[in-house]
Design brief:
CATH topology of the largest domain in chain A: Methane Monooxygenase Hydroxylase, Chain G, domain 1
Helix content of chain B: over 70%
Shape of chain B: globular
Strand content of chain A: under 5%
Number of strands of chain A: 0
Number of helices of chain A: 6
Structural class of chain B: mainly alpha
CATH architecture of the largest domain in chain A: Up-down Bundle
Largest interface: A-B, 11 and 8 residues
Helix content of chain A: 55-70%
Largest sheet of chain A: none
Structural class of chain A: mainly alpha
Shape of chain A: flat
Radius of gyration of chain A: 27 Å
Distance between the termini of chain A: 61 Å
Oligomer: heterodimer
Chain lengths: ~120, ~475
């Protein structure tokens, strides 16, 4: 059973070795001339501003979390939409309820200022 | 058909709709007082619903099981929720966290507990557990600016999520072993086939999840820190109703797999070991605590041990004793935490010595606290005594007399730390003049004390309900 996976393991091993070998060769043999142009971000990329570890406002996380919640809940619509005809009214009522529940949550967020940035 | 299901599961349907109403009202009016009143009304309606006998059966394609059993459990949850929010109000105002959301989250936690008690399908059981747990994590950390509350919420969340993982893994293994997710079908499968080791591993993992929720030793380390750090009324809910919910769900699971666990010496050995450890460790660790919240945390570990004795007994008498004890324990512990919440000032004044001389200044409050302490010890004529008596009697009936002996010895140890509070209140002089100046007795506390007292003197009615709940629980 496990032997049949041997070729895959060999291939993974070769891939790792080859990767290490090639990047190692580049580091040891390659000629390095650090000019100003070479040290900037890639061509047509954005100019770097400030350090990477600067703090992000907590408001961003709030909006991001709310987005994820609603984004995931919309997923439930897809299976229903696919079998919309077969389910008929007995599928419509639960989905309407579900939509109303979401709407109540959305109303709460809106009234409590969850989406206001300032 | 769908309408019939909704009516059969009326308490849960109602609680869900009421939650939406609360959210919309809180968003529109933004008045904590209004949300509080509406939440109390919701709890009152739920309690009233539980007082009337209702139809029993399965709803939503064998997802929910409505019976006198779930009705009794829901009664306990709704009553605890109502008492907790009425005791919370002054505390929240004092600590500057008087949000309407607090009450809504308590209501949602209760909804989760109700789902747990009515679950007939393992996924519903898990969803109920998660609704309850997530609401409780928020309640632990609702004091956003307090460092210890944040620590408590973080610890509770991380460890709780970890134990939920165990629980879910157990569910999947049981499904793998039996091929069923509906609890009674698992029961039928196990009556016809013998249990495989895969099933036992699954059941053990599920038990880890339950034992974490009821904070049984060795899964109890989070309890003292979380109970101490959380706002006191939240702790009251965490230590009572959530434990009651975990116990009712545990009984549901154990009853359905009883063909394998009954007279199974391994099962009885494992569970009685945990029960003994929980009783002994909880009581001994509580002896050295000066902070009352920490002391009650360890005492709640010990009480989980007493209730486990009823589960080990494995008879209807044992299970109905657990139900009865869950009710009495919820009442007296909510009462004790309610008194602590009144005395506490800016998270200080929580050690036993701070209660010195309470009797001289506030005799009624001291009397109420003494009643809760005596009932927690298990001294007659209070409710705690009847509950403990029934639990240990069930153990003796099942031939586990040694377990009852350990339980009685452990509760004898507990008398030291409960009575210590009473001694401070009644026999010491106050530390400072007018120390309890601003403390106003909440009438709810007197009501709880009265209930604990009545459950001790006239226990027959409630015991009959608990017994009937078990009789009709699973005969379908």
């Amino acid at each position: 059973m496990i032997e049949s996976y041997l070729p895959i393991f060999i291939q993974i091993g070769i891939a790792i070795l080859l990767g290490l070998l090639l990047s190692g060769l580049g580091i040891f043999i390659g000629v390095k001339r650090r000019t100003k142009q070479k040290l900037t971000s890639y061509e047509s990329g954005l100019e770097p501003v400030g350090a990477a570890k600067h703090r992000v406002s907590v408001k961003y996380y709030l909006v991001a979390m709310l987005f994820i919640i609603f984004d995931i809940e919309v997923i439930f619509m897809y299976p229903w939409a696919v079998s919309f005809r077969e389910l008929g009214v007995s599928g419509l009522i639960p989905m309407l309820t579900f939509g109303l529940l979401l709407l109540a949550g959305y109303y709460y967020i809106l009234r409590k200022g969850g989406l206001e940035w300032d | 058909m769908a309408l019939h299901d909704l009516l059969l599961a009326l308490p849960i349907t109602f609680a869900t709709l009421w939650t939406i109403l609360l959210i919309v009202v809180e968003a529109t009016a933004k008045r904590a007082q209004l949300t509080f009143s509406l939440t109390s009304v919701g709890f009152l309606i739920l309690i009233t619903m539980m007082l009337f006998p209702s139809e029993q059966g399965y709803a939503f394609g064998e997802m929910l099981r409505l019976s006198p059993y779930s009705q009794f459990a829901n009664f306990v949850f709704a009553l605890s929720g109502l008492l907790v929010i009425t005791l919370s109000q002054s505390y929240l105002a004092k600590e500057n966290i008087h949000f309407g959301e607090y009450y809504i989250i308590v209501f949602i936690a209760t909804l989760g507990m109700m789902l747990m008690a009515s679950a007939a399908h393992m996924v519903v059981l898990f969803i109920g557990l998660e609704i309850m747990s997530i609401a409780l994590y928020v309640l632990a950390g609702i004091m956003r600016k307090d460092l210890r509350a944040n620590e408590a919420a973080m610890k509770y969340f991380l460890l709780g999520a970890f134990s939920s993982g165990f629980f879910l893994y157990g569910i999947s293994l049981i499904y793998g072993a039996t091929g069923e997710m509906t609890l009674f079908k698992i029961g039928i499968y196990l009556q016809e086939n013998s249990a495989t080791s895969l099933f036992w591993i699954g059941l053990s993992l599920m038990m880890v999840g339950f034992l974490f929720k009821i904070s049984a030793v060795p899964f109890h380390q989070w309890t003292p820190d979380v109970y101490e750090g959380s706002p006191t009324p939240s702790t009251a809910l965490m230590s009572t109703a959530s434990k009651a919910a975990a116990f009712t769900a545990l009984i549901t699971v154990v009853l359905n797999v009883s063909s394998q666990t009954e007279n199974n010496s391994n099962w009885i050995f494992a569970l009685s070991t945990i029960a003994v450890l929980t009783m002994v460790v909880g009581n001994i660790a509580a002896l050295s605590q000066d902070n009352l919240k920490r002391m009650l945390a360890f005492s709640s570990i010990a009480h989980a041990g007493y209730m486990l004795v009823g589960i080990v007994a494995g008879s209807d008498a044992g299970y109905s004793a657990v139900l009865y004890y869950a009710l009495v324990y919820s009442l007296m512990n909510i009462g004790a935490f309610g008194v602590i919440a009144l005395i506490e000032q800016q998270r200080e004044l929580t050690s036993a010595s701070d209660y010195a001389g309470l009797f001289k200044e506030k005799p009624l409050l001291a009397g109420v606290m003494a009643l809760f302490m005596l009932s927690l010890t298990g001294i007659p004529p209070f409710g705690g005594f009847i509950g403990k008596y029934k639990l240990f009697a069930a153990a003796v009936e099942s031939g586990l007399s040694w377990l009852a002996v350990v339980g009685v010895l452990a509760s004898a140890v507990s008398a030291y730390y409960y009575l210590r509070v009473v001694v401070f209140m009644f026999m010491r002089e106050p530390q400072a003049e007018n120390q309890f100046e601003g403390v106003v007795l909440n009438p709810t506390l007197v009501l709880i004390a009265l209930l604990v007292f009545l459950l001790g003197i006239f226990p027959t009615g409630m015991l009959r309900f608990a017994g009937e709940a078990m009789k009709f629980a699973f005969n379908m």
